[in-house]
Each structure stands twice: as C-alpha cells, then as structure tokens.
Amino acid sequence: MKFYYAPGSISLVVHIALEMRGLDYRAIAVDFSRQQQRSEAFLAINPLGRVPALVTGDGVITEALAILNYLQNSAESATDATSLFGYKTPFSTAKIDSFNAFMASTVHVSHAHLWRAERWADCDIAQAAMADKVVQNMIAHYRLIEDHWFVGPWLHGEQFSSSDLYLFVISRWLKGDGVDMQQFEKVANHYQQMLQIKAVADLVDNIYA
Ligand SMILES: N[C@@H](CCC(=O)N[C@@H](CS)C(=O)NCC(=O)O)C(=O)O
C-alpha cells in the first residue's frame, strides 16, 4: 500500500493506525509548502487535493474516517486482528463512528476556519470573523468531549479504539488554535497516555515533529 501524508495534518490518525497494526506500506510525504497537494500527480490520486490518501490493491481510499474503517474491516477478516480494533458489537462500532464523524465533520472543520478560511469566503472581513470564532467553537467541542464523550481510561472505556487516535491528533492542534488543553483534565491526561505508545511517540518525535 502507498500512504500519502503531510506532517501536521490529520493524516497522523491513519499513520498511527498503520504503524500500530504493523502493516506493510510505503509512506509518501506531500509537501504543502511546495503546494504538492495541488500538483497534477497528486490530484490524480485525490482530486480534492487533500491528505490522507491510501492506495490499495483495489484502488484509492480518501478520507481518514474511511481509511480507518478499511483498516478495521481488514483486521476483522485477518487472523492477526489487534486490540487497536477490538470493539466488535454493532453499538460499540457505531459509537466509534459517531465520535470519529463528529471529529471529522465538526471539530476539524471548526479548526480549519482559522487556517483555511479561504475555502469558505473570499472577503477579508468574513475570513477574520470566522477566525474569531475558532477559540469559542473549539472550547465548546472539547467541553462536550470532556463532559459527554470521555469514558476513560480511553475515550470509549477500557478498550482502545480509533477514536483515541482522532482525539489525540486534533488535540495537538489546540495550542495553535489558541486553546489551553489543560482546562480539559481528561483530555490532557489522555494526551499524555497516547504519548506512551511507542508508535505514537516515534511519529510525533520524527515525521510529525
Ligand atoms: N475530510 C478529510 C479532510 C482532509 C484534510 O482536510 N486534509 C488537510 C490537512 S489536515 C489537507 O490535506 N489540506 C490541504 C489543503 O487544504 O490544501 C479527512 O478527514 O480525511
């Protein structure tokens, strides 16, 4: 498999999953500073010009959520299914999907209003107004995670899941968004817990430093 990623981006969610499962893949960096995500070569892989993208034997998969589900379904059919994807009941997998969809479609998008406002508005005043809402929105989302979603010791309880990857990666963006993670005690502890996982520490210290 070929895995297209960019440091600092949501691709870290998938990158950790690939590493934790010990899968055979080749990581290919997409250099945003050189606008490689808009190059003809990359647009042929993902016409949206975004990472992550995973090239499998069956074709390309885009969207972090879909790639995680693909890896999960592959693990279920494989004999080496690891504890990373240990939840199996319809309800528990739906809870994972529910949280991950919230992170992908709401929290990630709120964060992007600071960094990619040009996607939604051309006018400087509108872009500035969107940027001004980021702290308030991110705090509201994280309050919901802390008070409603978080079960502990992992997000959904005793069993680690792909939702822990999502929570960790987006939490890394809080500081840049102007939000102090320490106001969310469970999230801050979870962040430190995640850093104890070797695959996570290796990626964060090196490729995503
Ligand atoms: N919904 C997509 C979002 C992917 C996405 O927005 N990736 C960003 C990095 S976090 C990107 O590639 N941005 C490049 C650009 O906007 O030019 C997913 O969850 O995979």
Write structural notes for this entry.
By secondary structure, the protein is an alpha+beta fold. It has two domains: 2-83, Glutaredoxin, CATH 3.40.30.10; 86-198, Glutathione S-transferase Yfyf (Class Pi), Chain A, domain 2, CATH 1.20.1050.10. It is 54% helix and 8% strand. It is built from ten helices and four strands; from the N terminus they run βαβαββαααααααα. The protein has a four-stranded mixed β-sheet, with helices on one face. The longest helix has 26 residues, at 90-115. It is globular and about 50 Å long. Residues 9-10, 37, 49-52, 63-65, 104, 116 line the site of glutathione (GSH).
Give a quick precis of the structure:
By secondary structure, the protein is α+β, with helices and mostly antiparallel strands. It folds into two domains: 2-83, 3-Layer(aba) Sandwich (Glutaredoxin), CATH 3.40.30; 86-198, Glutathione S-transferase Yfyf (Class Pi), Chain A, domain 2 (Up-down Bundle). It has helices at residues 11-20, 40-43, 64-77, 90-115, 124-132, 134-149, 162-171, 174-177, 185-195, 198-205; strands at residues 2-5, 26-29, 53-56, 59-62.
